Amino acid sequence: MTKTLIKGNHAIVRGALLGGATHFFGYPITPASEIAHGAADLFTRSGRTFLQAESETSAINMIYGAAAAGARVMTASSGPGVSLMLEGISYLAGSELPAVIVDVQRAGPGLGNIWPEQTDYNMCCKGGGHGAFRNIVLAPASGQEMTDFAYKAFDLADKWRMTVIILSDAYIGQMMEPVGFPSEVKHGQRKDWAVYGDAESRENLLTSIIMNQKGLSEFNEKLQAKYRRVEAEIVDWEEIQTEDSDYLLVAFGITSRIAATAVRMLREEGIKVGLFRPRTLWPFPSARLAELGESVKSIGVAELNDGMMADDVDLAVKGKCPVDRFNWFGGYVPSAEELVEKVKEAFNG
Amino acid sequence: MVKHAKPKGFYDQFLRKAPEGGPAAGTTHYCPGCGHGTVHKLIAEAIEDMNIKDRTIFLSPVGCSVFAYYYMDAGNIQCAHGRAPAVGTGASRTREDAIVISYQGDGDLAGIGTAEIIHAANRGENMAVFFVNNAIYGMTGGQLAPTTLLGQTTATTPFGRLEEREGKPIHMAEVVSTLEGPVYVERTTLSDARGVMKTRKAIRKALLNQVEHRGFSFVEILSPCPIGWKMAPVQARSWMKDNLEPVYEVKQFRNIEDKIRKSGRLPEADDAALLDMLVPKMEETALETSILDSEKRIKIAGFGGQGVLSAGTLLANAAIAEGLEATWLPSYGAEMRGGTANASVVLSSLPVGSPVVSSPTALLAMNGPSLDSFESAVVPGGLIVVNSSLVKRKVDRDDVRVIYAPVSAIASEVGFLKGANIVMLALYLFESGAPGIDALKSVLPKLIKKSELVELNLKLIKRAEEFYAAV
Question: What Gene Ontology terms describe what this protein does at the molecular function level (chain B) (predicted)?
């Protein structure tokens, strides 16, 4: 496959259109705006629909309406915008509507700054809005995965009637890398639950209000059962040199790339380190981590937040081995050398 | 005896309300004397008479009419509080022939959902909005609405609405009619039979506008809430005449009939056209694959406008042409507005780990501030190329290789000052050897559309080569 040097934020628009996206509703925000720019160009030129909403709140509700009417629909934003969308994401879960949201994470809290952080982890992976619900969360670590995850996200969303969040970050979005594109266009199928405004779908209703406790309780049980099936079917991760490792680094997105370099450097010094990189953050690859927790001496979780994923790693390994936490904030992205030092300090301590 | 039957736009039995059937499945959940039942009925009759039942997408709001889908025999979508006009935008942009009806109350439309209604109206979305204004929050228990009258007592204005505290009532039909998007705006009342007949006409008019694809219609309906107002139904209707109607003028604000709303959407590209549009066609290059013993981390820095970002993309593209892995990371966002820019490029024979260049193996400094910023970060044994046309000082380090090259002057001599970045990049390639200068030459015509610009760049590369040979 011939590869093209392209920004992650541009590649994801192409991946989405090839994956069958028909509608994009968005609101600009750095460092995700290029996705809206690309969508405004390519969705429009290809006879799909692009519309800039008046707010992220409106954008997510346009998504709700389009998804209800059968579209393959997406948006892209960053932390402050996704915070505003949480209400709508809860309603999407309540009506079991499929949607794709790209979160190009920036640093917070509040307005923060436009550099990378991974502090939207909890907001995206734990549902985020009100109610007991989950989103499928994919964590790309390259321009290629921005493309590939967008390409498959609409199938996933449709199959499970769930929101799929592609949890990227400012560097994965802003970076240019060689990317190869799929050569086949996917298309959404007619959905038997959607409201198309035609005779066949007239009986359909999309709502999230169920006033009687029994009914809402049963609905929640059904949702939870679905989430257990999703966990069993789509959990995905990558392992680098974990077979013989004494120390296991766990990282996702931009941090996993720094960790990959750190693993190389530490191995050169004779320290047996491996890397575990979740590709799905929800469902989280807990079972495999639990196994690895038995074979390694220690685990270190590197992330640009206060240990949000480390909490999930802790839950997975259940005290079988110590879990070190390497955290950075504020948009600061460490070098591989800094991570190497941290690992050496923790491991040889 | 007159037998009253339900309009055919309603379900025969309200089984979503009362799944077990029986008498409860034959009545609505609304209170005695409430206006919602009347408005529902007028809409349901119109849907049936106009033969648009199959095409209708009915949006239920949050408020007393949250359960409108118990009754309307149409495709139903229930929406978050105030968001129905945005939901309707999404639905109507997906199903352009659908009749989209947004049914909203005063808290929903005039309170929490003002942004959504204003912008949907301003875009002239193809939908009919029926705004039921009863000057109070019904479902949550009789609290202040944005349309509550001055002095009116509610659960949250126990001493009456006070202008100094809550402001004056908001006039949504007037607000909406200041916008150019809507084709039809009217306010009606349910205070008497004549008002009900006018409301019936207005609802049909709004729906006809949908059938005719005219765009956005807005009907505000003054409606009684006897329970919320703590009045008997008959008393509530005279209260409307005496108090509500003097504040909210019952009239038609706009009626444009000669407009057709076009979707503005281009024809849909088929798979072949889409692939053609999205998947760049790059011929494979015949260049030999380079091997790098170690990762090269290059920082290219200068003023905005000196082409440092594009020099970076050219370098990364040249590397890919030789089979190397590459990443390019720009300075971006607000940082770009300070007038300086830099690109970080990492080249490797292995997949690139971190794209961050904190300790460059090479610094290409196009101006003084760039040398000041990054000189100390360069690894020992690394390379610094200084644009000596603009940087007057020398490099302080003695553990790096330095090339002083007047790249701006060289580019000026060729008559293309903007090409200084190419001279700088070419010098780096001559010095590093991988990727080679041929790789740069091979990617130029693919990345630069104008052939005369390619020629100019090749001339700049030649001058760089002459300069490099002389160093």
Answer: oxidoreductase activity, acting on the aldehyde or oxo group of donors, iron-sulfur protein as acceptor; thiamine pyrophosphate binding
